[in-house]
Design goal:
One of its GO terms (biological process) is tetrahydrofolate interconversion. It catalyses: (6S)-5,6,7,8-tetrahydrofolate + formate + ATP = (6R)-10-formyltetrahydrofolate + ADP + phosphate. This is Formate--tetrahydrofolate ligase. With about 600 residues, this protein is of the alpha/beta class. Helix content is about 35%, strand content about 20%. Among the domains are: about 130 residues, Domain 2, N(10)-formyltetrahydrofolate synthetase (2-Layer Sandwich); about 80 residues, Formyltetrahydrofolate synthetase, domain 3, CATH 3.10.410.10. It is built from 20 helices and 25 strands.
């Protein structure tokens, strides 16, 4: 491996650009992985899609590899390096001579152009090529936006025509039957793949009768779309088509759901998604295969890469590492109770990523603010803050253990961490029954992750007793009580009148009551208040609304004040992104 720029002195895009000079052609990555020529669908020299159907059919009798999930403690607003640690673990396993793959989510344009970055990893543990990874890749998110917004076009058009024509005219003009949609009871909004708080609440259809139906509406970010969730959980094209038709768009005046199938748009929506169903294939800086597919956030969506990516990778490799978004309270909880439930896959190990920086934050240090210099309190050693902050880490270890999975704590080490701070983390975690590995993959790549890789490999060899937190027969409010108390540490759950009415309606419906539960909650705290760090005590989870995602197969309780459309900060990343007009290379992506 050629020497790359020092990550302590260079931004991620500089390192990625240098690494891209030595990338393997994607055909070589595919050949080494064992893909056939017919299974690889190239998009240029270094990116491809993989024909999942052909792979799964050819390898249907091959045993699956070991299945590893990467989650984390409650992060600071800067993130704690799950994607970096996923890339580092894969690189470390590569150094051990193991056949290993990874699966991560496709980044949204929202964080990429805002304050969080593209989630390709960092330092010497990255997924490359960085620019296509960060800027649309093979068009999956564009397909999701088109499919989702087509449903909203169908809805608004139908409202307009049902207003303008009587039943006989509707039948004569288009063969339509009146749906009697209630314009005050719309379940869906529009989506865009940017953070834009100005689109959270809109009025559309201004003008005359030819300008659409006048109605209140809203935008969410693309990754919150139910179509994105369907991409994450669909098992094949037939399953996707069936799920697409079950999306609830609105309700009629009697309170009956109006679906995309009722609007006769589900088939066209699926047509937009046909190619997007194939996972994307990229590579780490050190040449290990990385599947990139689906991109839902964990705080406002399911927070997992696709089941199809995992199923393909498990057939092609001996070890497969998949990443769940944000902390174990939301990302891992959804991996545990949604992704594994729908896929039927059982993990062999789960990694909980922690940084000394985040432990200090949970232990009393000032909360870092993205775009501003790190507070001076983080510059020196403070073992006391680290020890207090470990309460949050121990809580997440307990969550993983309650799923019957063997936890490995990865201390995602920065060069500023001190031996005494790391020793405190190891002592407390080992006392809680977790393996601990210090990994310096950000600074040293695979060589810095060998201890980490060995710990995960050993954990995979142990028997575990994986079990779901709840059965689908468990009533919704009882499930929420389980999640709130056992995963978040709440004393109980309170509901707005609207949310409680919806919960009762769902519990009384034979179909809706059997859907999974996908929580919407801040990722910055175990509670529904992002400012409460550590392990908050004496609090109750507040559910203000409950959405129905009939196609994806879950109900979505919305906790606290979180929004499905994030806002752009005062110093967004797009201010520093540009193109070198001589070379054509994009600069400034991180």
């Amino acid at each position: 491996m050629p020497k790359l720029p020092d990550p302590t002195k260079n931004p991620d895009y500089v390192i990625a650009e240098a690494a891209e000079e030595f990338m393997q052609p994607i055909k070589k990555i595919a050949d080494d992985l064992g893909l056939t020529e017919e299974e690889l669908l190239p998009h240029g020299h270094y990116v491809a899609k993989v024909d999942y159907k052909k792979v799964l059919e050819r390898l249907k009798d091959r045993p699956d590899g070991k299945y590893i999930d990467v989650t984390a403690i409650t992060p600071t607003p800067l993130g704690e390096g799950k994607s970096t640690s996923t890339m580092g673990l894969v690189e470390g396993m590569g150094k051990l001579g193991l056949k290993v793959t990874a699966a991560i989510r496709q980044p949204s344009g929202g964080p990429t152009m805002n304050i969080k970055g593209s989630a390709a990893g960092g330092g010497l543990a990255q997924c490359v090529p960085l620019t296509p990874f960060s800027l649309g890749l093979t068009g999956d998110i564009n397909a999701i936006m088109n499919a989702h917004n087509l449903a909203m076009v169908a809805l608004n058009t139908r409202l307009q025509h049902e207003r303008n024509y009587n039943d006989e005219q509707l039948e004569r003009l288009s063969g339509m039957k009146r749906l009697n949609i209630d314009p005050t009871n719309i379940e869906m909004g529009w989506i865009i793949d940017f953070c834009c708080q100005g689109l959270r609440n809109i009025v559309m259809g201004l003008g005359g009768r030819r300008d659409g139906f006048l109605m209140q509406s809203r935008f969410g970010i693309a990754v919150s779309s139910e179509v994105m969730a369907i991409l994450a959980v669909a098992k094949d094209l037939k399953d996707m088509r069936e799920r697409m038709g079950k999306i609830v768009v609105a309700y009629d005046r009697a309170g009956k759901p109006i679906t995309t199938e009722d609007l006769e748009v589900a088939g066209a929506m699926t047509a937009w998604m046909n190619e997007a169903l194939n996972p994307n294939l990229l590579q780490t800086i050190e040449g290990q295969p990385v599947f990139v597919h689906a991109g839902p956030f964990a705080n406002i969506a399911i927070g997992q890469s696709s089941i199809l990516a995992d199923r393909c990778a498990l057939k092609l490799s001996d070890y497969h590492v998949t990443e769940s978004g944000f902390g174990a309270d939301i990302g891992f909880e959804k991996f545990w109770n949604l992704k594994c439930r729908y896929s039927g896959l059982k993990p062999h190990c789960a990694v909980v990523v922690a940084t000394i920086r985040a432990l200090k934050c949970h232990g009393g240090a000032p909360i870092p603010v993205p775009g501003k210099p790190m507070p001076k309190e983080y510059q020196g050693e403070n073992v006391e803050w680290v020890e207090k902050g470990c309460a949050n880490l121990l809580h997440h270890i307990a969550t993983v253990k309650s799923a019957g999975i063997n936890p490995v704590v990865c201390v995602n080490s920065f060069y500023t961490d001190t031996p005494n701070e790391i020793a405190a983390v190891k002592r407390l975690c080992e006392a809680a029954g977790a393996r601990v590995a210090v990994s310096r993959h950000w600074e040293k790549g695979g060589e810095g992750a060998i201890e980490f890789a060995e710990a995960v490999k050993d954990a995979c060899e142990e028997e575990n007793q994986f079990k779901l937190l709840y059965e689908l027969e468990t009533p919704l409010r009882q499930r929420l009580d389980l999640i709130a108390k056992q995963v978040y540490g709440a004393d109980g759950v309170d509901y707005s009148p609207e949310a409680e009415a919806k919960a009762k309606k769902i519990e009384a419906d034979p179909e809706l009551s059997k859907l999974g539960t996908c929580m919407v909650k801040t990722h910055l705290s175990l509670s529904d208040n992002p400012n409460l760090k550590g392990v908050p005590k004496n609090w109750r989870l507040y559910i203000r609304d409950i959405l129905t995602y009939g196609g994806a197969g879950f109900v979505v309780p919305v906790a606290g004040t979180i929004s499905l459309m994030p806002g752009s900060g005062s110093n967004p990343a797009f201010r520093r992104i540009d193109v070198d007009t001589d070379s054509g290379k994009v600069k400034g992506i991180f």
